[in-house]
Amino acid sequence: MSHILDVDNLQVSFTTYGGEVQAVRGVSFHVNAGETLAIVGESGSGKSVTAQAIMGMVSTKNGQVKDGEIIFKGKELTTLPKKKIQALRGSEIGMIFQDPMTSLNPTMKIGKQIEEGLFKHQKISKNEAKKKTIDLLKLVGIPAPERRYRQYPHECSGGMRQRIVIAIALACDPSLIIADEPTTALDVTIQAQILDVLTAIQQERNMSIVLITHDLGVVAEVADRVAVMYAGVVVESGSVDEIFENPQHPYTIKLLQSVPSSELAESQRLVPIEGTPPDLFSPPQGCPFAERCPFAMEVCVEYMPEEQLFSENHYAKCWLHDPRAAGVKEQFAGKEEVLW
Ligand code: SF4
Fold first, then answer.
1. Which of 51, 139, 146, 307 is 20 to 30 A removed from 313 (C-alpha atoms)?
2. pLDDT digit string (tens) for 72-110?
3. What is the pTM (predicted TM-score) of this model?
4. Contact 225, 38 (CB under 8 A)
5. C-alpha distances in angstroms, 152 versus 89, 98, 213?
6. For ligand 1, which residues put their CB under 6 angstroms from it?
């Protein structure tokens, strides 16, 4: 399968009054044409910063790509001039943000906001742009699109506004959509409708989606593959089945245990992940999860674990699976039920 996006050893830092925050520390992944890759993790894990780096937006926030490559359709984005990145953004790469009220302009009519991107990136007449805009409003399931075209965002419901944001992202037929928590601000019924709209359009257009989320329910519903991020590092990656059915990194396992599921028996309780993520002003040199991991060993604190493969697409970075640490699992006899 051809890769539309390749991120290799991406490192992003932010300069703050308190020093340098190493938000993304050597992240690598790829996205195939037509698939959905979900990047999951808790707040501060670096998932949104990774998305912003792909969109060339970290420099607007005192951030800097320190190292690594982002190759989109053969073009290296980290070294591309600002104007070229801006030309790609909105045309070939669309972005859907979490809160439609902050990504929509409250003083501008909905139709004009969708047309803005069309005029910026395409040679198109006013009439063609209006027709395309109304078609896009229909495509994302907005009733009475001609009327909505003339309305302002505050005249629409939250779900409707998120559909408008999707229409803006789709306006120029991008081949990649980056959706950063696209349904977090919505209630569950509207969330399901928005996800249905997005996946139906994805299949119709063979579009790729990078979905940034902390919601494992959303991941299970729409993703093909998953990258689990913790403290700026991808600690495990695999197909959605591999991650849900056969997780191998203690953080992924704990993450899955901490969310409610329909199979959870009444007597079973959700298991919170004790502790807090490490301080990224001075990140740990070893495994980032060591402070919270019940299996942490000396080697975990000293050295960053390497990727251990379980299948062509499934890997985890954990010393428990490293062949050089053979036998260490046995040390935890009696404790395995906490995880495996
Ligand atoms: Fe736990 Fe060590 Fe594996 Fe990190 S490398 S998850 S600390 S066992």
1. 51
2. 999 999 999 888 998 898 899 999 887 777 789 999 999
3. 0.90
4. yes
5. 24, 19, 28
6. 249-250, 287, 289-290, 293, 295-297, 300, 305, 318-320
